[in-house]
Description:
The chain is an alpha+beta fold. Helix content is 32%, strand content 24%. Among the domains are: 11-89, SH3 type barrels (Roll); 204-277, MgtE N-terminal domain-like (MgtE N-terminal fold); 293-406, CBS-domain (Roll). The strands form 4 sheets. Strands 2, 3, 4, 5, 6, 7 and 8 form a 7-stranded mixed sheet that branches. Strands 1, 9, 10, 11, 12 and 13 form a 6-stranded antiparallel sheet that branches. Helix 6 packs across helix 8 (230-239) and helix 9 (242-252) packs across helix 10 (254-263). The longest helix is centred in the middle third of the chain and has 11 residues, at 242-252. It is elongated, with a radius of gyration of 26 Å. It holds the Pfam family CBS. Residues 287-353, 356-416 form the CBS domain. It comes from Candidatus Nanopelagicus hibericus. Keywords: CBS domain.
Amino acid sequence: MNTSKGSILNRVxxxxxxxxxxxxxxxxxxxxxxxxxxxxxxNNQPPRILGLIIEVPPRKRIFIxxxxxxxxxxxxxxxxxxxxxxxxxxxxxxxxxLSEMLDRTVTLNDSEEKVTVxxxxxxxxKTGDWFIEHIHIMHRGTGFRKRGNYSTLLWSEISGITTxxxxxxxxxxxxxxxxxxxxxxxxxxxxxxxxxRVEIARALDDERLADVLEEMDETSRxxxxxxxxxxxxADVLEEMDxxxxxxxxxxxxKEKAQKLLALMEPEDxxxxxxxxxxxxxxxxxxMTTEPIVLTADATVxxxxxxxxxxxxxxxxxxxxxxxxxxxxxxTGRLMGVVHFQRLLREPPATLLGGILDSDITPLAPxxxxxxxxxxxxxxxxxxxxxxxxxxxxxGAVTVDDVLDHLLPENWRHKDLVKAETMEE
Length: 424
């Protein structure tokens, strides 16, 4: 659909547009569409579209004036002209269309029926301006309408879309974010207002929310966890990596942390509580209590099957720790490690005890952050074992754990790209 002036009227449904690639005239991808920005007008006139919000690397949302959009067609948005790389900040009387309007309850003017907004369509006028002319809604089953029936109505046929709703749905908004990685979803959520942020958090399943919280800065995840019911917060903490859960509980205060630990499953709570005993910037405070641990009589095939599990982080999948029973941390005495590359070179039936690398230097839980970083760098390791005075394996610290602590606190959401402009 060409958007040049003088073309026939075009209609673009914005929820369907979300995630669409944005390209320059040369065909180079600049980012993806995440939302649209509109301004409300008086007398219930259709809102005017001011521009699109696109996400550019690294997870930065910027504003593109709609006048820079030259084409929306076949899953592509083409833009031209100047590109302002400053992070998007909404102004007074501006609305982010998808995050604020999707799933909202509105009223049909002719029947007073309550319906749900499923999508919003912007249309190109003869003057070359874009307006929100139509709203796609779902009927809730009142009156002669059956639940699940859909209609596309004029903006003037509904009311209440700009009224704040105390418990707005999120199904359609989540649909536009479904394929995002946890780090990207965390970034998008933090761009929303507090009300929508909490509504989305409550709608995500425990595992997905746990992944998102692990990607947030301390202040943001503490604030979000505070909005959850006690039982729900405990369920989410159980899904987090123990070291991340321990970090979060340290941040919320001792009294509240103890209450949440009491609501968690005893086994999960024990691992997290054990980590909380260590200082944050030490090997013990950074380690995970769930590395891959097997005994010496386990086979290469068994080790590879554990490494293949999707939930195992790359750093932990780089090696298997071989210990005397028990294999749950704290284990029996650490005997050595088998690196992933060695596993690939050996027959499946080979016993791990015969291919051990016992020439390793484990770390004590009190080892300081800088020493841990130096150790990993010196020996080119992705993970290092942490042992107690009896050489029992307590856990493992990985490169990503160290980076999380070495980088500035706001590294996840700090603008890494300086403001700049790009000309045609």
